[in-house]
Amino acid sequence: MKHLTIDGLGNIRDSEHRVLTLRGINLDGANKMPKEPEMTTFSPLTEEYWDGDNVSFVGRPFSLDEAPEHLERIRSWGYNVIRYVYTWEAIEHKGPGIYDDDFIDYTIQVLKLLQKYDFYVFLDPHQDLWGRHSGGSGAPMWTYYACGFDPKGFIDTEAALVQNEWPGGPEKFPKMFWAANYAKLVCGTIFTMFFAGREFTPKATINGVNIQDFLQTHMLNSMLHFYRRLLNETDLFEDCILGVETMNEPNSGWVGHVDITKVPEEQQPKIGHIPTVLQSMILGMGKKATVDNYTFGSFGPSKAGTHEVDPRGTRAWISPEQGRRMDKHYGFERCAEWQLGECIFAQHGVWDPETNEALKPGYFCKCPESGKDVDEPYFVNNFFVRYWKTFYSAMRDLNKTMFLFCDPPVMAIPPDLKNSEHMDDRVIYCPHFYDGLTLMLKKWNRYWNIDCLGVLRGKYASPILGIKIGEQNVRNCIRDQIDTMRREGLERMGNIPCFMTETGMPFDMDDRAAYYKTGDYTSQIKALDAISYGLEGAGIHHTYWTYTSINTHKQGDSWNGEDFSFWSNDKFDSDLNNSRQYRAKGAVDINEKSRAAEAYIRPFPVAVFGDVQEYGFDLSKGVFTLKIEGEKTVDDPQPATEVYVPDYHYPEEDFYVNVTSGNYEFNKLTRTLTWYHEPGEQTLEISPIDWPFGSTLKENTCGCNIM
After folding, report:
1. Taking a C-beta distance cutoff of 8 angstroms, is the pair 253, 192 a contact?
2. Which of 177, 182, 189, 199 shows the shortest CA–CA distance to 284?
3. Is residue 293 part of a domain?
4. Of the four listed, 43, 44, 218, 349, which is most buried by Cβ atoms within 10 Å?
């Protein structure tokens, strides 16, 4: 576990100079939400929901007594790395500079258990949509007040669509509506403030600094407090924790928005009510607006008329009276220019609240200081990089050797940091990938898909040219998109590792038919196999999203209707036709509630003495192939290549092994095949004695079920 390095080609190597493959999962989806009081996005509105100060995440993700069962299960899948999820809110919910050391105490105990189970770990300060009260997770509630907002005004103004506040109850919240919040008032404003407040909200000064610096400083200080305790009180950074991530899925807010009176063609996702930026500002001031309404179908979003949204005077901005109370409570001192109760952008002359007219429609697409055009590449290479530099310096001052995981905006071309002084040989590039159509429709279509990344990169003259027809072409399309991300990292950031820290597929496909009707998980298996095929084909490290210890069939991961967990508390209904929920003979009981495990429990090269040329697992045949360029050595004993061989697919020793040179041995306890091979081009192949899965995976290949 110790002394990992990155070589000149971007490989992660161990102390024996072997190339490692890090393969694991995010732990835990439940860490986004408080434990006390117990709250998920399905929880009905109570006074406790509005009390952001008095929450506790102690007990997340699970009790210490329950931990061994979960960790043994994940280890039994062969996974060797955990992306450990935590939130800023969990540490600093009480107020600025007030840290919850009880939470850190508990987290240290959980991390020590991960250390005991021999996992590599890296720490993810997770956020989605800024925080819980704007429909996501991450930041403490007091940050909304710091930015001038009143969370109680969000639902009426549609400044953010929040499942807990959904009219008719949380159970009625439409699937994937949450993701549209990024373009609405709260997220558009706060992410603009966080990354570019000095430029676009210079009047927003609090406690003597711009809101940008206020937010960034407090978030980074909370991380540093947490990490400093880990470094000073434990040996976790020596024997378990690889490093720390920047922040999950940073967003540009409205920075780069060309015209506040129009919805950008490229804005995604478009689902439900989609206001323009100007309409978001108008609604935030309590005035009605008629906004476009979108549905999402097989070919993407389509406009389905308009809808009048009328807040009836309710504002998303905090009233002066309440604002003064909150400022006193949290110790905020605002500059006199910042008028509470008024839209911060109206105060900067972007629009006129009296006439509702745009005064500076292109406000966000020109840098006020330099006058340069601002678009996504400009945001990434200037505003995100500015944050990266602050993060990098703070973390390197704390520790010189931990890996820093750089997570740029989703699907964006990574920043040009190749020759930056804020780069070193212990930085890792961390893109995310999800298949958009499957994610939005919650259906797997193996017959056609679209090269979303290629369309975003302008690869095609028309998006329709990015459509890929046929199952193998769909799989190759996913692989090629992931590989493009890897190559972009090498080109823009240098020879550093590419680590896909989030990817996965929803389990609640086909209206949850697998749970309640058919017991047939073929769609989920095929979808996850396609993702895994892509990851193997691109040859990158990865942590799937996700393991959620509170998952149920009814509420999924208990967060915005998502259902990604590989494991569920609910058993498979024995009354259903479970013949397609396969079980390999000899599979251990610990996987009883694991879903579609055929696809994500896979053989892989844990450590290779040489360079990996390619590897992959063919689920339809049960065949694993590894091709390497073996390294020369005079060491005795010679370092060996190690391959994980899952009991789930190859119980006991029910498999054949073919190698081009050398010899091997197999440890049934650790499920490790150790291969001593010659230098040069070498191949290892593992094949099953009996394979129960292939025939069903090939069923229904005739016909076409275009959704």
Report:
1. yes
2. 189
3. no
4. 218
Q: Is 249 a catalytic residue?
A: yes
What are the structure tokens assigned to 440, written together? Answer: 């939005």
Q: Full-prediction pTM beyond 0.85? A: yes
pLDDT score of 705: 29
Give the C-alpha separation, 373 to 368, whole Å: 10
> C-alpha angle with apex 248: 559 to 546, nearest 5 degrees?
45
Euclidean distance between CA atoms 10 and 83, whole angstroms:
20
> The domain that contains 455 carries what CATH number?
3.20.20.80
* Most distant CA pair in the chain, distance: 81
Say if residue 99 is exposed, middle or buried (CB neighbours under 10 Å; 0-12, 13-18, 19+): middle
531/614 same-domain check: no
With respect to residue 367, please indicate whether it lies within any of the assigned structural domains. Answer: no
Residue 545 main-chain phi, psi, to 5 deg: -100, 115
CATH of the domain at 631: 2.60.40.1180
Are 516 and 618 contained in the same domain? Answer: no
403 shares its domain with 527: yes
Q: Domain range for residue 628?
A: 602-688
Give pLDDT tens digits for 145-164. Answer: 999 999 999 999 999 999 99
Helix-, strand-, coil-residue percentages of the chain, each rounded to 5? 35, 20, 45
Confirm if 528 and 600 have CB atoms less than 8 A apart.
Answer: yes
For residue 407, give the nearest of 269, 499, 543 by alpha carbon. Answer: 499
For residues 65 and 184, state if they share a domain: yes
Within a domain: 589: no
For the chain, how many structural domains are there in total? 2
* Bridge partner list, 611: 629
Mark 318-351 as b/e (b = at least 16 C-beta within 10 Å): beeeebeebbeebebebeeebbbebbbbbbbebb
Helices (H), 351-443: 376-378, 385-398, 436-441
For CA atoms 343, 211, 331, 47, the dihedral sign is positive
Alpha helices per DSSP H over 539-633? 597-600
Q: What pLDDT shows up at residue 572? A: 63
163 lies in some domain: yes
Name the pLDDT band for 636 (thresholds 50, 70, 90): confident
Pairing of strands 12-13, 5-6: antiparallel
3-state secondary structure of 245: strand
Residue 476: closest CA among 613, 616, 601:
616
State the Cα–Cα distance between residues 299 and 462, nearest whole angstrom. 14
- 669-705 per-residue burial string, b: 16 or more CB within 10 A, e: under 16: eebbbbbbbeeeebebebbbeebebeebbeeeeeeee
Q: Is the pLDDT of residue 591 over 80?
A: no
Residues 608 and 539 in one domain: no
Q: Which of 245, 488, 502, 642 is catalytic?
A: 502
Q: Residue 308 catalytic?
A: no
Q: Are residues 532 and 630 in the same domain?
A: no
